[in-house]
Design brief:
A/G_cyclase; Alpha-Beta Plaits; 2 domains; 8-stranded mixed β-sheet; 13 helices; adenylate cyclase activity; EC 4.6.1.1
Length: 397
């Protein structure tokens, strides 16, 4: 083996693997360099935990001459029979290396050995990737070399895992921060925060369509159902909105109990207000249909509360607001206040979707003039519009 070439691989990773801008490219280049240095690698896998509400971890698989395969697994893998008998389960739980020489009868306790034998693999080792803090990640290394890995080769692999673990930890921390910000404050806000917009008072103005919704009858529902059931219903209800909002280019900024605030930014240079408002209305119709079809966890139809959303278009202040070192990245302004007042009017009128005069004027078609209403905190009354297809429902309610 070329030990100087192996040292260069380690130094390259310690320096951040600058010639490989993505983790997949880094893995491909490091494995290819290791093969050129004399390591007889066949299939290499890296398994990285994530801090994500739906994804337990990501995996990267490399084979000579192919593209690195990247994928993810859900949290339920931890309860699967396959994971329970995997060498990786031991690595993740105990942080120790696990070797399975395919000529060793004891290795047959791992079902993966049969698959590896079919490929012509002679040796397999799973190694922990030790982090500076927290549980380890894992890696697996295989060879088709007759007799398996030599001790010198295993030591070379072990030496590679040290800088590899540091590289993965740094990339994972950055990715985790991005995912958490995306999960809790939204994609656009997360990008701004990671970009350094973290001081109180850092804010910009932007034109946006505003979505402010509420769940009516939720208090009564909460009073008669177990708390766990209420949380499940609330999550189902929000699922009906969040997917529709994101599909149409919107961003959820805040959950407020059973309420939701979202914005759909308008490009002032393109002047796409009509297209944006059309997408917002499409999201509102999709959410309305989803909420109408909701079922209680026990199968009972949800008919004791209604969903209401107010739509408006205006300029908002978008940025950091709060006290001391506890900040919230949100939007405020008269346009948001008006949307909140319109949502209350929707409830009084028994309407699911209402819009301001400005929104309805831009997103033409399908609107009924519901009249002018005084708005608390505003000097003049606001004309409110509702959808034609809700007229009979509102009259019946």
């Amino acid at each position: 083996m070329d030990m100087s070439a192996l040292r260069e691989i380690n130094e390259w990773m310690i320096d951040g693997a600058r010639s490989a801008p993505t983790p997949a490219q880094m893995m491909a280049e490091s494995c290819e360099r290791a093969v050129r240095a004399g390591l007889p690698l066949w299939r290499v896998g890296v398994f990285v935990r994530t801090l994500h509400p739906e994804i337990y971890g990501r995996h990267f698989f490399w084979k000579p001459g192919g593209e690195v395969e990247v994928g993810s697994v859900a949290h339920d893998i931890l309860d699967s029979p396959e994971f329970a008998v995997s060498p990786l389960s031991i690595v993740f739980k105990q942080g120790v290396e696990v070797r399975a020489r395919l000529d060793d009868p004891a290795s047959t306790r791992f079902p993966i050995v049969q698959d590896l034998q079919a490929e012509g693999v002679t040796d397999y080792i799973a190694l922990p990737l030790i982090n500076t803090d927290g549980p380890p990640n894992a890696s697996s290394w295989t060879t088709k070399q007759p007799g398996g890995f030599t001790e010198e080769q295993l030591n070379a692999i072990r030496s590679i895992t040290v800088p590899l673990a540091r590289y993965i930890e740094i990339v994972t921390l950055r990715r985790t921060a991005t995912l958490l910000l995306d999960t809790y404050v939204g994609n656009r806000a997360g990008e701004r925060i990671l970009g350094g917009q973290i001081r109180r008072g850092h804010a910009d103005t932007m034109d946006a369509a505003i979505w402010l919704s509420d769940l009516r009858g939720f208090t009564a529902l909460s009073d008669r159902l177990p708390a766990e059931t209420v949380v499940e219903i609330l999550n189902l209800y929000f699922d009906c909105q969040v997917a529709a909002i994101r599909d149409q280019g919107g961003e959820v900024l805040k959950f407020m109990g059973d309420g939701l605030l979202a914005v759909f930014p308008v490009d002032e240079y393109v002047g796409d207000e009509a297209q944006v408002c059309s997408r917002v209305l499409e999201a509102a119709r999709a959410s309305r249909a989803g909420v109408a079809a909701l079922q209680f966890p026990n199968g009972e139809a949800v008919e004791r509360f209604r969903f209401g959303v107010a739509l408006h278009l205006g300029r908002v202040l978008y940025g950091n607001i709060g006290g001391g070192n506890r900040l919230d990245f949100t939007c405020i302004g008269p346009a948001v206040n008006l949307a909140a007042r319109l949502e209350k009017i929707a409830g009084k009128l028994g309407r699911t979707v209402v819009a301001s005069e400005r929104f309805a004027g831009i997103c033409e078609g399908g609107w009924s003039d519901l009249g002018e209403f005084p708005i608390a905190g505003f000097a003049k009354a606001e004309r409110v519009y509702g959808l034609h297809d809700e007229a009979s429902r509102a009259a019946a309610g």
